[in-house]
């Protein structure tokens, strides 16, 4: 008998390896052979309870039309063998029904379970989240008849943050878990920071920062970069710099976050100095850093530096420039009054020209009173964004500002003919000619 259990343990390990590397069809076939293998203990043996969840995981992962039916079969078999009392199996079955888009079946099973622990409740919370039922997930957390774990809270906090709705609720959950004696983990903080940022809640960001400091979590570059961005969005460059100094191993994401924070608030010289320090630290820049550097140059009015760094980053560091980088370069040149050069960048872009690039040129034309290029940019925008009234209003106002009222009136009429509705708050600068 002992050898039969040893063989089952060995085969379960092989089944686990199939599942872990994603060989789910092989895993299901292997499980089927295990079920019918006479050399193994009977299915009712408690040792078999470890193999069932693995089969459920593979069945769900394949997302086959028959996956729900397979889960039903395994459910019936497990009930017959008495495995539903195992939280390990029950949570896997609840999750399997959820993955098969059968939240009602998951709910029914959950309600029928004789024993529910935090693992099973966490699986049910995940089913609600997977099906887009955030209210259900929150309700499940509130109604748990066992103490929730960090995993239960983390799932709901992350779902609240991802939804973008009621970000204050994520902060409330974070405080609630601490009142209940549940220690937030790194995963908790990573899920929470976006909600703090969305609220612009500097006090909450400081609260998270303080917790991370007290619990030695700044070995994580991911948390460091998230907090730097959060502080930057809230206007606290001192807080951003404090976090940056605490991060032990700085990767390119951390460097990009601090450079972008200073660039966003117009401290271009500091941003550029940080970029040079990053080079000395032998960290290779990426596309996000590339964008931060260009924005810093734009805020400082350093068009020549922007061109230089554009070449350095693409030719020396091999960073691939995308539409956002070219649009940002157009904006930098436009701000500096180098409109023809900005237009040349658009003309020679190796990627698709976006509305952002033409919009940057149009804005610069308005600032400097350049009618010819404004007309080119405006016409391009009319084709890319035919329903964007702002583009029509901008071009018409450029004409009006230069005293070209007939042209401005033509744009207004064209907008009406195209059926484009002017947005509330946008105003025409069209002057009617005197009829005297």
From TrEMBL:
Protein known as: Uncharacterized protein
Alphabetized PROSITE patterns for the sequence: PPR
InterPro entries linked to this entry: E_motif (IPR046848), PPR_At4g14850-like_plant (IPR046960), PPR_rpt (IPR002885), TPR-like_helical_dom_sf (IPR011990)
Keyword annotations of the record: Membrane, Repeat, Transit peptide, Transmembrane, Transmembrane helix
Transmembrane segments: 182-202
PANTHER family on file: PENTATRICOPEPTIDE REPEAT-CONTAINING PROTEIN (PTHR47926), TETRATRICOPEPTIDE-LIKE HELICAL DOMAIN SUPERFAMILY, DYW DOMAIN-CONTAINING PROTEIN (PTHR47926:SF426)
An example molecular function term from Gene Ontology annotations: RNA binding
Keyword presence, Glycoprotein: no
Gene Ontology BP annotations: RNA modification
Residues in PPR repeats: 149-184, 251-285, 388-422
Signal peptide feature range: none
